[in-house]
Specification:
Chain lengths: 373, 373
């Protein structure tokens, strides 16, 4: 797996049970996965030489991020490296303009959008949708970076000018009056086998996925089925191998596709405890073309909350407190130094009452961050 | 953790989520845990120098086997090393004569027994219990090794002579007419906090734990409570820290203590999927004096079956088949070369009907071994 972050760390855990030889290409020895994995290659996890060498040393290469540049992916495939997902589907995850264009061709429901080359493109677009609108960098954004909600033509012009100066292609999307945000994950293997997980509710804060409730409480069966079908259709149409996460807006009428990610995803961390097959195991099964595992859930609800760093870098005492207060909370630490706002782990709780679970997951996350003190 | 076997490998998985710095002292780089862990010390996992150096390099030392000789344990403690469990409780796990003596003092129900220094001791004992009787090496036995069921005085004399030649102390136990074998696990922390798991049924074959059904179907609440209380009492009385497994015989009247193990145990592998807190996570929490996790179960039943090697060392094709036939079977491979009869992994299935689960777990294990072909 290229990249040594927490997704790679948790994939390593799954690889142990499967008995799969798992290696990581990590930028440094203190990377989340590099701290725990027995087979670590240190190198530039976006650079041509290092990714190429890593691909030569491994039968299959997959990714814990989408930041390996297209020319690098191309060179690896041309040298005979087996990328899963491959360069072709990854282009859609790396470039929102390509993604939007392809989804429009497929007839997938989505926010209205257009490519932006000038401030006038934005004002013309907003004349149809109304202000505010959402400007997005087509490439390089994640976790809320590269997304700007603009209220008027002046604000839009400022973003467009800055993007032009940095040579970043832009698109504009309508700001959807959604009821809530949802996500659905599907695994697809090279054989074409798919396994789809229940649709979950995601609670975003500052552009970062904060909490996940699985399955999304009160979601109509129509919308749930539609969302799952959409994920399967997109996975097939784009030729995805491995996990695909489809982030969605729920509106009164249905669901709209917001973003795609072709890797294990924060919205699927709940599957470690909540589903028979975790997204990490499923990703491995899919990219290795093994038969997929069951995505079935046991408990009625599973709630996940991200652990973000607070002001105090010392979390040990608070960690003990959280464990003692609620022995059913499952804690996942990523081995990262604590910095304010940094994702340092997550907690998961399973049970019957999603309100109770959310309260408990939040209490653990808030306490660990130091908010209650 | 001293020892690089599968118990260490699965403890490593649990350490990743807890964010605990976990290192292994393994005899070789191909040891089950050494293959996957990022922090491996190669050395003699029973030898004075290497265990001493390992203890100096780590805050807390625990074990995946009971074979570190007592003088080594003593030297480590005298040098200030923190062993959990400590030398004191470990003596009872290492020496069945000590264990039987202590359990008798505690009034724990157990098979009748006595120390054996001559063939006459056995015949005198059998005069009270009837033949056959069970001779056991007091030290060094595991997985059925060091246990002999003898039918008469001649057979007993042969075992006694061989043991005397090898300087192995012996004891004799009555052969209990048990209804089935049970096991119960308890975690105890240095604080004295305990967490006890449901009593399970274990199915032994050739002295090796083959299958585990959790909880033991149809076990009366009286017996279940008695078994759990026994485990807690023994853990406290012996000063155990970490996981304690108590293997039991169920008889018409109650339960009898058969064996003790002070580490994660084969009878607890089901907890990875079947309980909120796996025995591996619980062992780490206990030996690190962290608050213990909930041993609660979600599914009504969990069944575990060991995967033993068959004649054919190539299991890949059969592995695919097992995954494809039953996508709900959870496979755990230990990274070991396949040899006939060797434990190479285990499978776990959770659900409502323990008969169905046992059938499915057996089918997977049998197919993987090559029995169906």
């Amino acid at each position: 797996m290229v990249g040594g972050g927490q997704l790679s760390r948790m994939t390593h855990q799954a690889a142990i049970a499967l008995g799969v030889d798992f290696g990581v290409l990590a930028a440094g020895p203190a990377d989340s996965a590099a701290l725990v994995c027995g087979n670590v290659t240190l190198g530039d996890d976006r650079g041509l030489q290092d990714v190429l060498a890593f691909a030569k040393a491994n039968d299959v290469v997959t990714f814990d991020h989408e930041h390996v540049p297209e020319p690098v992916l191309r060179a690896v495939e041309e040298a005979g490296g087996l990328l899963r997902p491959g360069r072709d589907p990854l282009r859609f995850a790396q470039d929102k303009l390509r993604m939007r264009t392809r989804l429009t061709e497929l007839g997938a429901p989505a926010p209205r959008w257009r490519a932006v080359a000038s401030p006038e493109h934005v004002t013309a677009f907003a004349a149809g949708t109304g202000w505010p609108v959402v400007l997005k960098a087509a490439r390089g954004g994640y976790d809320g970076k590269g997304v700007w909600v603009v209220d008027d033509a002046d604000a839009a012009a400022a973003v467009v000018a800055r993007a032009a100066a940095e040579d970043v292609p832009l698109l504009v999307e309508e700001k959807v009056a959604f009821e809530r945000e949802l996500a659905v994950q599907v695994a697809r293997s090279p054989h074409g086998q798919v396994a789809v997980y229940p649709v979950v509710e995601t609670v975003q804060r500052d552009g970062i996925c904060h909490e996940v409730i699985a399955p999304a409480p009160g979601l109509s069966e129509d919308k749930a089925t539609r969302a799952q079908q959409l994920a399967i259709e997109i996975a097939h149409a784009l030729g995805v191998t491995g996990m695909l996460a489809v982030e969605l807006f729920e509106t009164a009428d249905g669901v709209l596709v917001n973003e795609l990610a072709m890797r294990p995803h924060n919205s699927g961390h709940w599957t470690i405890e909540g589903a028979r097959t975790s997204q990490f195991e499923q990703h491995l099964r899919a990219v290795l073309d093994l038969p997929l595992g069951s995505p079935r859930t046991d408990a009625p609800f599973t709630v996940m909350a991200n652990l973000l760093g607070g002001e105090d870098p010392e979390v040990y005492r608070r960690y003990l407190h959280v464990m003692a207060v609620d022995p059913e909370v499952k804690i996942h630490f990523y081995g990262k130094d604590v910095r304010p706002g940094r994702k340092i782990g997550h907690v998961t709780v399973t049970g019957d009452d999603h309100r109770d679970l959310l309260e408990r997951a939040r209490a653990a996350a808030d306490y660990l961050r130091g908010d209650d003190q």
